[in-house]
Amino acid sequence: MEKSEHTFLAMWCNEGLEYVVDITAHEQKQVWKSLKGEEVQALPNLNAMILRARYNSQRHYEIYMISAAAGITEHDLRSMFENDPQYAADLIRERGTKLYSDRANKKKEVIV
Q1: Model-level pTM?
Q2: Whole-Å CA distances, 55 to 30, 42, 52
């Protein structure tokens, strides 16, 4: 049986990766917990994440959803950010879906 791709939610700022979760795996686990009658844990509220980003604008948050091939885990994404954060951010910007971005713009306007 071949695994399908997984969807991840990632949030980072100019200080590094702050949050990453495998939404697909989380939802599957929660379905099983619900069927067993156990307490279900909700995913973090996206609106709360965006609110955090807006109130900390000096940190230039970015929030993306990205689909990854079977076998890619949260640990893999965390390792990618630890080893080469610029590559990780650029890759997710290129292939992911932007949910929020307050990315710093290095271009400064000069009035002459």
Answers
A1: 0.78
A2: 31, 23, 5
